[in-house]
Design a protein that fits this description.
single chain
Length: about 120
């Protein structure tokens, strides 16, 4: 669990940096605030998994997991199509493959928390 605690604190630190940097940015949009809000919400399952605490409801995190996966697929779809079909670029393709693998790695605690931590949810009921 130590690895997941480190990952949680890295995410928390990056969220604080984003929160501090947001007012200092010249080209701030509503999407920046939405991203900050979503990032803050998604920090909870990483905390819950790392520290083995039930936060919120199991169904909430299961739905959030699928929404998060859909967001990543949506964000990666256009660059993937661009690098494979329109402008075949091996470096772009490999960067997308690495991004997908990294996202899959980062989804592990989220997935385990939402779907395989029944002991946490049964203790909190």
């Amino acid at each position: 669990m130590k690895y997941w605690k480190v990952l949680f604190w890295i995410f928390a630190f990056l969220l604080v940096i984003d929160f501090i940097a947001l007012p200092l940015s010249n080209d701030t949009s509503i999407y920046d605030f939405i991203g900050l809000f979503v990032g803050g919400i998604l920090l909870f399952p990483y905390y819950g998994y790392a520290y083995q605490k039930a936060v919120g409801w199991k169904l909430l995190w299961q739905i959030s997991f699928f929404i998060n996966v859909l967001m990543v697929v949506f964000l990666i779809y256009d660059p993937f199509i661009e690098s494979v079909l329109h402008k075949p670029d091996i470096a772009g393709f490999f960067s997308i493959v690495i991004a997908v693998l990294l996202c899959m790695l980062l989804f592990i605690p989220f997935y385990r928390y939402a779907f395989h931590s029944n002991h946490l949810w049964s203790n909190s009921a």
